[in-house]
Amino acid sequence: MRRPLSALLAVLALLTAVAGLPTPAQAAHPAPGSATRYTMTAFTNTSESNMYVYDSPDATDFTLRRGPAYTPPSGMIRDPSIFRHTDGFYYLTYTTRTWSAPSTTIGFARSADRLTWTFLYDHTVPISGLARTWAPEWFVDTDGSVHIILSASTAAGGEYTFRPYKLTATTPALTAWSAPTALSGITPNYIDTFLVRIGSTYHAFTKNETTKYIEYATASSLTGPYTLQRTGDWAGFGAGAEGPALVQLDNGGWRIYYDGYSAGRYWYSDSHDGFATWSTPTELPGVTGTVRHLTVLKERVPGGVTLPTDTDRSLRSANYPDRYAVVRADGLGYVDPVTSSSTAAEKRSATFAIVPGLADPHCYSFRDSAGRYLRHRDHRVRFDADDGTAVFDGDATYCARPGSTTGSVRLESYNVPGRYLRHYDYELRVDLHQDTSTFRADSSFTAVGPWA
Q: Coil, helix or strand for 376?
């Protein structure tokens, strides 16, 4: 029996509040008329002097919007970090020198549209004996205070022996900063510290420059003391990973991006259990091998694509317009030819009720004439009766993204972000996004009038 959505959300809110995880109000897909946009800023393997801007509707499929988008008047622009301030402007902070040069400043720039940037100033970090300062990252606390977390080393401690420090903005215009405060508990020789706050807990992801692993620490205060919770290759990110950057996905999970600098590749991994376990690392399609040390800003913006709900429709393949998503007698999904001459049974097999998503009402589920739902299992699409579990709800929920042709949509798996409903050898599957025109076409469908 289908459970009332309100009851499910109430139970989930209680569980997440106890666990200190985001509630549905904090993490959910946007309502019709709005969309999620993930903006990436990065420098590249070929240029430390220019910053590039990409964006994505799903945190996986990034499109270059402008490159170069910003070149500072002098110095480099490594490790650019972006956020949007309460004044409506976007702000960058970045490393101003190449890794081998002494560096005592961090840079600032501002933009009204993410694409055209104006240099503001370089800020000299007032740490006694400072040798190098790297990788400044914005951190906005729940009280609205604006901070920068940066990695700094001193000549006395060893010019390549870094530790994290906090700077706090002392003016709303971000023109003045507090004296640096070291984050206690994260001992020297850690770089690229990235913070997120969930409930009352601060979570730090930081690279141990001795072991070359990204490690994980928590604290009840922004400046610590932090306690290392996981060390070594605890998450499967591998040695040589650096530059961690996190963003929360619409389904409540968290995605970490990191630079596999020794191999010249870029990776991501997802966690849906409060950072305890992580998905198998996946190369970030389209930009891996190009971008370096990125951050990703999540926003809600007007727009997005939608499907009609509580109505019957057929799903026509965008690149094989004579074929439609169907359920065959074996209960599996395919794309088969359907025409006006098809049998009544064939037409029924290509007709589905589109209903609000079982796991998120702003996404979609598809129910056949027998009352079964389109769901994935072992990455294959099948039609099963609802068993009343949260796993089933997630397997049977898909979120609409722009398709490859006008009027078409791509359907991203709710519980395995980055995987899309697509046809392969005419079988319906949920496969990892690939940065190819073929994959985008194979995963695009148009909702048309029902065959039955």
A: strand
Cα distance between residue 34 and residue 57, in whole Å: 11
Distance CA 396, CA 366 (A): 8
Tokens of 115: 């694409």
Is the pLDDT at 170 greater than 50? The verdict is yes
- Contact yes or no for 123/130 (Cβ under 8 A): no
Q: Are 375 and 390 in contact (CB under 8 A)?
A: no
Q: Is the pLDDT reported for residue 321 higher than 70?
A: yes
User: DSSP alpha helices (H): ranges in 326-433?
Assistant: 344-349, 390-395
Of 158, 288, 265, the C-alpha closest to 210 is 158
pLDDT at 27: 58
Q: Measured on CA atoms in the order 69, 75, 78, 81, is the torsion positive or negative?
A: negative
Residue 126 has which token pair? 């007032």
Read off the DSSP letter of residue 128. T
Residues 6+ apart with CB under 8 A from 390: 359
pTM: 0.92
One-letter amino acid at 336 equals D
Identity at 135, one-letter amino acid code: A
Model confidence at 19, pLDDT cuts 50, 70, 90, reads very low
